[in-house]
Amino acid sequence: MTELHFLTIAEASAQIKARTLSPVELTDAFLARVKRLDGTLNSHVLVLEERAREDAKRAEAEIAAGRWKGPLHGIPIGLKDIYNTAGIRTTGHSALLKDHIPSEDAFTVSLLREAGAVITSKLATWEFAIGGSSFDLPWPPARNPWDVSLDPSGSSSGSGVAVAAGLCMGAMGSDTGGSIRGPAAWCGIAGHKPTYGFVSRRGILPLSFSFDHAGPMCWTSRDCALMMQVLAHHDPMDPGSASVAAVDFTAGFGHGLQGLRVGVVRHFFEKDLLTDPETIAALETSVAVLRDMGAIVDDVALSPFGTYADCGSLISRAEAYAIHQHWLRTSPELYGAFGRHRLMAGAFVLAADYINAQRERSRLVAELAETMKSVDVVIFPTARCPARPIGEDSMASGFQPFFNRAFNVTGSPALSICNGFSQTGLPLALQIAGRPFEDALVLKVGDALERALGTRTRRPTLAV
User: N or C: which end of the chain has fewer CB within 10 A?
Assistant: First the structure.
């Protein structure tokens, strides 16, 4: 029998709906596990123990009265600590906001509460979603549950760690340059960056107005789809929010991939950024499995990955500095060194360079749209290698571990799934991307591959 803390959202939800599992019992199991393990993992900035138990009791009473709200009702969910929570501290993992208590929930948090989710925690992040795995902040950096000497990546570091370690069933992350997909890759979970505009960013501490995405991080693609069912709502108060028809994110699951056209962006990992052989081998296994399921797989070419990376970095750094310039001028000492240096880089971006980068971005968007006329999804590794020693993903070494930035530039949906393990037992990851607002297809492909590859039965081993 699967332990409660290792149930998927889909499994737990079915039991809660059938009233064979109590939301209170489930929440208590997660809170107890956080107490046992998080002193080592550091994935939590704040545990909302009393509030979570109240929410779980309310959910149990509602379900007993026949008012089951849907698949997230009674499910323990954690929030990256850049999501505003009314009356509850939201810090951005920074001394600058260590006493910041918002008066309203983020729009997505409101949606989760309305769906009956049990919010258990505020989770560690890189400072303001950019500062790296830093040791000069009020809270220590989160550590990878597969090996605590390794980095979980970021910036949604606590979210990735907490889901992988069984400290919450799902978590909210944010993704400006890969901050959902990086931790998903190195922590061995599923992380979905939705199409830009599908999920509101209102009430989330901003980093880059045109690149920020909010999205779910879960053990499986199916669980991400269940969270997207709640999260994908138009928000008229977020200027980036899109008004599109409602989507059933799990409708196509289990229907097979016969005839699916898959493009492999091979030059990304064979030419543009040299990639670990085990990562490439896992991708080739995934390609073979896709073909076995009836997909048509061919190579496709885009602009070099460095073009996407440079374009995205220039725009996001300029926008981040625009947000932080007042604090950087008046209270620079309240930032950690990594966060301060990376944010200040935007001060040196000329207006002409920013404008030209936006023009290049338009060209890259058009290029991908043309490519996607001949394929339904594109794939390539999420990361060049398995997790590295903690602190190395801070960019202090100059090493770029991930292939994530491209789909922040284009705004396309992109999902990272675990598609294998290294010889040392570390997760490897595949990235699946699609056309705008075809998130359901991307998640369907992720679900099919997870089931065929059998990677969801292996969890990190932790001392209890």
Answer: N
Regarding whether 327 and 348 lie in a shared domain, the answer is: yes
Average pLDDT per block of 10 residues along the chain, 464 residues long: 89 98 98 97 98 98 98 98 98 98 98 98 98 95 97 97 98 98 98 98 98 98 98 97 96 96 98 96 98 98 97 97 98 96 96 98 98 98 96 69 96 98 98 98 98 97 72
Find out whether 118 and 74 touch, Cβ atoms under 8 Å: yes
Q: How far apart are CA 210 and CA 316, in angstroms?
A: 8
Tell me if 380 sits within 8 A of 403, measured CB to CB.
Answer: yes
121 tagged catalytic: no
CA 22 to chain centre: 28
Residue with tokens 């030059």: 267
Question: Is beta strand 44-47 parallel, antiparallel or unpaired with respect to 296-299?
Answer: unpaired
CA distance readout (Å), 405 to 156, 215, 231: 15, 16, 23
- Domain containing 317 equals 307-357
Burial of 355 (0-12, 13-18, 19+ CB in 10 A): exposed
CA 46 – CA 81 distance, rounded (Å): 9
* Residue 422 bears catalytic tag: no
Assigned domain for 145 exists: yes
150 forms beta bridges with 389
Which of 357, 373, 397 corresponds to the end of one domain? 357
Q: Catalytic: which of 13, 43, 80, 241?
A: 80
Which domain CATH number covers 16? Answer: 3.90.1300.10
Cα dihedral: 395, 396, 398, 403 (round 10): -10
Q: Are residues 376 and 400 in the same domain?
A: yes
Asked about 362 being catalytic, the answer comes back as: no
Which of 338, 357, 376 is the last residue before a domain boundary? 357
Pair of tokens at residue 225: 């789809």
Give which of 93, 82, 172, 159 is closest to 126, Cα–Cα: 93
Spot the catalytic one: 110, 153, 155, 157. 155
Asked whether residue 462 is domain-assigned, the answer is no
**Do 71 and 116 have their domain in common?**
yes
Taking the C-alpha atoms of residue 371 and residue 62, their distance in angstroms, rounded to an integer, is 48
Tell me if 70 is assigned to some domain: yes
On whether both 280 and 229 belong to a single domain, the answer is yes
463 lies in a domain? no
Structure tokens at 71: 């698949």
Place of tokens 């699967």: 2
pTM of the full predicted structure? 0.98
Domain count, the chain: 2
Clarify whether residues 102 and 224 are in a common domain.
Answer: yes
